[in-house]
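Lab notebook page, bench 4
Experiment: in silico fold of construct C2
Operator: M.H.
Input chain length: 333 residues
Purpose: comparison with the prior construct
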Amino acid sequence: MNKIATTAEPDKIEAGLRPTGQTGASVPPWSEEQLAAQPKVHHGWLSRLRSYFILAPLIWVYTIILGTISLLCSLFDRNGRIQHNLARFWSWLIMRTILSPVKVTGTNNLVATATHAGTDAPVGPAERTGVLDNPGAGLTGWRSSAAVFPGTVAAGSPLKASKPRVYAVTHASALDIPILYVYLPFQFRIIFKSELLSYPFVGWHLKRSGQVCINQQNPAASIGSVKSALRSLRSGMPLVIFPEGGRTRDGELQPFLPGAFFLAIKAQADIVPVALVGTFDLLPMNTYHIKCQPLEMRVGEAISTAGLTSQDTDKVSAQVKAAVESLYSAPRA
């Protein structure tokens, strides 16, 4: 495995953090089929009042209390396990509060093997399910599903896949993060934009819990973060990325930034496409109006990067984007 050369890599990373050159005509807008397939639900003034005066204030209370506890725990929690569990509990409270059940499909694509009680235990067909339809159960549902992912919630340790894995997730809402923390049943790290560090409590947690900060305005300054992400990947810690680089403003899939796929290729990590369906309608940008509704998290098959080099970054980016679009555009049950 080649080591990162800090003198040679900044140009590659800087290029990777710019949108890959993809023609808009080659792929139809990802949201058109979804919009046509789903009837519009009217959320009136009662929904707005509930959001502004009940849901949003409760989420801020959860954030302040658990963010403060997480900050204190960071003084002695060196592996991030306690902080991850606090983030998961914070997310579970939010998902309970917003009354938006999540149906998860493709859970068999999440991991290949699991670590339980210090030994690698293969997850066989009898222990895996392809669909988790667990409205509102959230963390409790996963905790009672020990046969599916043995010991992951109680122990708080990351599942050990057969090789490193990067989860490439669509990003349409601020509530995407709680969904991932509740329904990805293992410890992981997230690549996030440096702008988020300015947010109280959330930014503090991101900085102190081992998440990976990328400065999109000055990619060369992110070399240390990239090296840290590579070490985490190679040690088996799953990495969650938002390849669009930020939330979509119109509900359509944005051009992918190939920089995250550069990381996956360097670590020879499999890339797992994940589509979050319904979150843009739930809470788009520039509003506090949470429109409670059923959601879906669709997990696709892993895409291998074995034998690929940084010259294949654009090709991998296009392949992952096609997989994500296929997941998202599938009709809802």
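Observations: The longest helix spans residues 45-73. Residues 31 and 252 are 5 Å apart (CA to CA).
Next step: discuss at group meeting.
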